[in-house]
Amino acid sequence: MQISNLALQKLLYFTHGLFLQRTGEPLVSGYFEAWRYGPVHPGSYAAFKKYGAGIICGRASKINPLTEQETQLPAVRDKNVLAVTGQIIATLGHMTAGQLVDLSHVAGSPWAAVVECGEATANFGLRIPNELIREKFNQHKMQIGHAPRLSEIADDEPFNP
């Protein structure tokens, strides 16, 4: 499966949301932020930023801040994580990055709720709390199949906050 950072961010967000609903636990450490094109996990965004708007062609790695040594992250082996990830890929993996952005922006979604609260300051980059994702995640399920708004976004469009 070929994927851009923009699409990866949305698929990671949807996987995180479904995992939160099923287990009550977060899938990823850290947090998601409300960026212009939807929810973004800043740590994973940074890990793949070097690919720009192109296809990601390498695995995520981590850098030891003391030694500056880079090592690849291990493969996921948790059966619950693999099951939820597989379900999201089977359900949403065929969608374009623009369609995934549209789905993340639906009315009542966690991203929309955070953006609406922050509209007075018009700042993107606001954190989307896990509790809000868990509470409002079902809004995405009700919106699948509606006409997309931003689907014209090309998969190779630069992905910036």
UniProtKB/TrEMBL annotation:
Pfam families: SocA_Panacea. This is DUF4065 domain-containing protein. It comes from the Bacteria. Residues 8-111 form the Antitoxin SocA-like Panacea domain. InterPro entries: SocA_Panacea (IPR025272). It comes from Parvularcula maris.
